[in-house]
Amino acid sequence: MRLSADEERCVGAGQCVWALPEVFAQSERTGTVVLLRERPARERGDQVRAAVRACPSGALRLIED
């Protein structure tokens, strides 16, 4: 699985960071999403999917390989 984030679409709600701080962060400068891991561990799959669904702006995308 691979993640992508659209920083221009991100509204900085932080739901992803709250759900998985080891995968997502927020830029100190803009407040928008920063991917810490583009390819998170497979065992985190359910949590990653939940974080992507929780994004209020739809800035996150998960590509299943």
TrEMBL record:
Keywords: 3Fe-4S, Electron transport, Iron, Iron-sulfur, Metal-binding, Transport. The keyword Iron applies. It comes from the Bacteria. Its cofactor is [3Fe-4S] cluster. GO terms for molecular function: 3 iron, 4 sulfur cluster binding; electron transfer activity; iron ion binding. The keyword Transport applies. Ferredoxins are iron-sulfur proteins that transfer electrons in a wide variety of metabolic reactions. This is Ferredoxin. It comes from Streptomyces canus.
